[in-house]
Amino acid sequence: MKKLIASAVMATTLFTAAAGFAEMGSGTDPRVALASLMDGNKGFAKQADVSNLNKMSSVKRRLEVATGQHPDSIIVACADSRLSPEIIFDKGLGEVFVVRVAGNIVAPHELGSIEYALEHLGARLVMVLGHSACGAVGATFDAADPATGIVPETAMEGNIGSLLKDIAPAVEESYFEGKEACIVTNVHNVVEQMENESEIVREGIESGLVKVVAAKYDLTSGRVSLLEEEEHAHH
Ligand SMILES: [Zn+2]
Predict the structure, then answer these.
(1) 147-204 confidence digits (pLDDT tens)
(2) How far is the CA of 206 from the centre of ligand 1 (A)?
(3) Three state DSSP letters for 145-194
């Protein structure tokens, strides 16, 4: 019996090693990861080139990553069906760790997922990706009082309302600059919130291991633009 337990422990250890748990900060340099994302997006936007996605979705690749994952980047994106990160960045199996929720916002489940990928999968780049004409930000914008730009409590009830509640600060901040400005503010707010509410993200940035970037995808051009850090006006 003892022997069985011992071998079970050993099997677990081996499994963990095989599953490829990586040390924090052991993965690809975040600048390299970012360049790879932007490069993939360039090809997609220009000529709908997703050759890397195709190559990296082969049976060979599938089997290669079945025993472990070391994604180069974490992408927090909207659930909108028109911007699958794998497609718009031309990335295949095991390359991007994607967290998706309407309005690309972060609550404990999303932060926990990000922390998991930073701590155990070695990823060092986090991209928060908003997009043009976002329905979730749009719905929050439309719920706001046109005179004040304030989102009423009544709009924040229920499960859908919980999304509006987390997007509301961005809408209230930028209401009079219009919907697209609210989308940009929301991305910056999420970046800031991530730093404030996740010790792992904060320590990763402070130690220089982790980089967090804000970006926006344009549904029409297919292009992802990095949002200037200077626009991150809260600091
Ligand atoms: Zn959206």
Answers:
(1) 999 999 999 999 999 999 999 999 999 999 999 999 999 999 999 999 999 999 999 9
(2) 30
(3) CCCCCCCCHHHHCHHHHHHHHHHHHHHHHHHHHCHHHHHHHHHHHHHHHH
How close is the Cα of 226 to the center of ligand 1, in Å?
17
Q: How close is the Cα of 123 to the center of ligand 1, in Å?
A: 24
Looking at every residue in the chain, the average pLDDT score rounds to 91
95 CA distance to ligand 1 middle (Å):
22
How many angstroms is it from 163 CA to the middle of ligand 1? 11
Q: What's the CATH number for 29-231?
A: 3.40.1050.10
The domain limits of the chain are 29-231
Q: What tokens does 63 get?
A: 């089997």
CA of 116 to the centre of ligand 1 (A): 24
- Which among 214, 221, 224 has a CA at the least distance from the CA of 41? 224
Tokens linked to 151: 């989102």
Cα of 134 from ligand 1 centre, angstroms: 4
8 Å CB contact between 194 and 201? yes
CA–centroid distance, residue 79 to ligand 1 (Å): 6
- Tell me if 205 sits within 8 A of 211, measured CB to CB: yes
